Amino acid sequence: MIQGENSSDTGFWGDNKSLTFVLEGEDHTLGNALRYIIMKNPDVEFCGYNVPHPTESRINFRIQSRGRPAVEILKQGLQDLSQTCDHVLATFDQAVKDYKGDSEIKMETD
Amino acid sequence: MATTDGIRSFVTLNEFDIDHVCIVLVHSTDFPGSYHGYDDAWSFAKFTENFRIEIIKIDGNDMEFDMIGIDAALANAFRRILLAEVPIMAADKIFIHNNTSIIQSEVLAHRLGLIPINADPRMFEYRQEDDEDGSDMDTIEFELKVKCSRNTSSSSDIPDPSEIYKNSKVTTKQLKWLPRGNQATLHQANPIRPVDEDILIAKLRPGQAIDLRMHCVKGVGQDHAKFSPVATASYRLLPKIILKKTVRGEQAERLAKCFLAE
């Protein structure tokens, strides 16, 4: 569940450029990877996350953008991350295939 | 290393540098706006161009590979996913009918839970929490029925327990898979069994017996370490060692020895 907390409620300025998202059931696995990829976005002024309590499975994920709505930035970040992971998986599969193919050829010649 | 390129590409550990304040920079800093004249914006095209995986070895249960052109934030996410989020099957409910061994039932149940089971978790579903019996879609059942007795046929003079008693050691080899529904045909190519046959579960003496059934269910390492598919998974950054002065003679030989492969 993603819950957007409007910045005007939390005492920051009142627009949709700055939001804190509460990501339920997530931890550093998604938090840090997503933070990295969102910080790579030039539209982002600030991005960070924290784990409010170690026994509760949720993170607070903060985005402050220079112009675009923070929701859009989050969506973009998740898409970039997903695309990247797909590419890593494809590369890995190919690398394993190549390695196994090579070692079979080696075994045959041995 | 103090060049912009150096700072951007490396984490510096000036461990034994006593003249300067120790600099340990563990975070990536290559973000847009950090460095003048560099385009650090995320680009998938740029990533695919630079990213490589080179496999160093695959040897039974061990694997080592280099991931080149990826940030530690992503590599660490993969490591954490391997440890805590990739599901496997493990014994979760143990029904003990009889246990007269010296190992307490709850300890025995815990030990059984930690036994790695050779089963493809993709062929199973998660069992519902209120489900007591499970179905062939979400449960693997094993039976362990062992009784220890004297080995009357033994003529050995040596008081070796494995010689003079039968079943003095209970191992994973004695776990019997009880296929449910169509599991036997479904898993014909790769029958379900413990990964290792020689894991010691308990030791028995004549008159002692263990009789139990166990239900293996699908789970993730987040819930319990027994559901973690890896013994461990780790990564490290590729080291670059810079020698500050030329090393010669005996010192050079000693230094070279530090980097010999085993």
Automatic annotation (TrEMBL), chain A:
<keyword id="KW-0240">DNA-directed RNA polymerase</keyword>
<dbReference type="GO" id="GO:0046983">
    <property type="term" value="F:protein dimerization activity"/>
</dbReference>
<dbReference type="GO" id="GO:0005666">
    <property type="term" value="C:RNA polymerase III complex"/>
</dbReference>
<dbReference type="InterPro" id="IPR036603">
    <property type="entry name" value="RBP11-like"/>
</dbReference>
<dbReference type="InterPro" id="IPR008193">
    <property type="entry name" value="RNA_pol_Rpb11_13-16kDa_CS"/>
</dbReference>
<dbReference type="GO" id="GO:0005736">
    <property type="term" value="C:RNA polymerase I complex"/>
</dbReference>
<keyword id="KW-0539">Nucleus</keyword>
<dbReference type="InterPro" id="IPR033898">
    <property type="entry name" value="RNAP_AC19"/>
</dbReference>
<dbReference type="GO" id="GO:0006362">
    <property type="term" value="P:transcription elongation by RNA polymerase I"/>
</dbReference>
<feature type="domain" description="DNA-directed RNA polymerase RBP11-like dimerisation">
    <location>
        <begin position="19"/>
        <end position="89"/>
    </location>
</feature>
<comment type="similarity">
    <text>Belongs to the archaeal Rpo11/eukaryotic RPB11/RPC19 RNA polymerase subunit family.</text>
</comment>
<dbReference type="Pfam" id="PF13656">
    <property type="entry name" value="RNA_pol_L_2"/>
</dbReference>
<dbReference type="InterPro" id="IPR022905">
    <property type="entry name" value="Rpo11-like"/>
</dbReference>
<dbReference type="GO" id="GO:0003677">
    <property type="term" value="F:DNA binding"/>
</dbReference>
<keyword id="KW-0804">Transcription</keyword>
<dbReference type="GO" id="GO:0006383">
    <property type="term" value="P:transcription by RNA polymerase III"/>
</dbReference>
<dbReference type="InterPro" id="IPR009025">
    <property type="entry name" value="RBP11-like_dimer"/>
</dbReference>
<dbReference type="GO" id="GO:0003899">
    <property type="term" value="F:DNA-directed RNA polymerase activity"/>
</dbReference>
<protein>
    <recommendedName>
        <fullName>DNA-directed RNA polymerases I and III subunit RPAC2</fullName>
    </recommendedName>
</protein>
TrEMBL record, chain B:
<feature type="domain" description="DNA-directed RNA polymerase RpoA/D/Rpb3-type">
    <location>
        <begin position="62"/>
        <end position="262"/>
    </location>
</feature>
<dbReference type="GO" id="GO:0005736">
    <property type="term" value="C:RNA polymerase I complex"/>
</dbReference>
<dbReference type="InterPro" id="IPR011263">
    <property type="entry name" value="DNA-dir_RNA_pol_RpoA/D/Rpb3"/>
</dbReference>
<dbReference type="GO" id="GO:0006351">
    <property type="term" value="P:DNA-templated transcription"/>
</dbReference>
<dbReference type="GO" id="GO:0003899">
    <property type="term" value="F:DNA-directed RNA polymerase activity"/>
</dbReference>
<comment type="similarity">
    <text>Belongs to the archaeal Rpo3/eukaryotic RPB3 RNA polymerase subunit family.</text>
</comment>
<dbReference type="GO" id="GO:0005666">
    <property type="term" value="C:RNA polymerase III complex"/>
</dbReference>
<dbReference type="InterPro" id="IPR011262">
    <property type="entry name" value="DNA-dir_RNA_pol_insert"/>
</dbReference>
<protein>
    <recommendedName>
        <fullName>DNA-directed RNA polymerases I and III subunit RPAC1</fullName>
    </recommendedName>
</protein>
<keyword id="KW-0240">DNA-directed RNA polymerase</keyword>
<keyword id="KW-0804">Transcription</keyword>
<dbReference type="InterPro" id="IPR036603">
    <property type="entry name" value="RBP11-like"/>
</dbReference>
<dbReference type="InterPro" id="IPR036643">
    <property type="entry name" value="RNApol_insert_sf"/>
</dbReference>
<dbReference type="Pfam" id="PF01000">
    <property type="entry name" value="RNA_pol_A_bac"/>
</dbReference>
<dbReference type="InterPro" id="IPR033901">
    <property type="entry name" value="RNAPI/III_AC40"/>
</dbReference>
<dbReference type="InterPro" id="IPR050518">
    <property type="entry name" value="Rpo3/RPB3_RNA_Pol_subunit"/>
</dbReference>
<dbReference type="GO" id="GO:0046983">
    <property type="term" value="F:protein dimerization activity"/>
</dbReference>
<keyword id="KW-0539">Nucleus</keyword>
